[in-house]
Write a structure and sequence with these properties.
Length: 189
């Protein structure tokens, strides 16, 4: 009787071991639904941190390069706007010694300015417009950084395996010497 019980326990252990092996080979990584929100939050706090959280380190220099370029153009247009504004204010105050007025070879101011008052006003409008446009583009790049981190975290959780594949194919048809291009969709059950 003891032997019969041991044989039953042994067969149950072998069945449960076989089930656990089959289940272990099928299991997938659990999906963390908060991962995309965390990546977006990290990217909002410090641009590029969401990309580092997603382990897409190659995107970090792109984020900082794009943001740096936008900030550079914003600061440069602000500086140029202030130059033309200050020159225009000096002309309104009655001075003719600004950098855009011009001087003779002997150092005396010209009788007529190189850039007129209307030219200074047009330059101010242009640099103000460029400054505002640079700011909007920089804000857009910052938002794109956050969106990229969020979408990338979502796509990291996407199931990519051999059961579903979309592959391009290129075949040379030897019968009529033409090429055939196309896409192949493989779906395995």
């Amino acid at each position: 009787m003891v032997c019969a019980q041991n044989d039953t326990k042994t067969s149950q252990n072998s069945i449960s071991t076989a089930n656990s092996i089959a289940q272990d080979s099928i299991t997938r990584k659990p999906i963390n639904p908060l991962s995309p929100a965390k990546a977006a939050f990290y990217s909002a706090v410090l641009p590029g941190l969401g990309q580092a959280y997603n382990k897409k380190y190659w995107k970090i220099p792109l984020v900082y390069g794009a943001l740096g370029t936008g900030i550079y153009f914003y600061l440069d247009n602000t500086k140029e706007f202030k130059r033309y504004r200050d020159a225009y204010k000096r002309r309104l105050a009655g001075f003719n010694d600004d950098e855009f007025y011009g001087v003779n070879p002997n150092g005396t101011p010209l009788s007529a300015p190189r850039i007129s008052d209307d030219g200074l006003i047009r330059a101010q409008r242009q640099f103000r417009r460029n400054k505002e446009l640079s700011l909007l583009i920089t804000i857009g790049i910052y938002a794109l950084n956050i969106i990229d981190a969020n979408v990338d975290a979502h796509l990291l959780q996407f199931n990519v395996d051999d059961n579903l594949a979309l592959k391009p194919h290129f075949n040379f048809n030897e019968f009529d010497a033409t090429t055939n291009l196309g896409l192949t969709l493989d779906f395995k059950f």
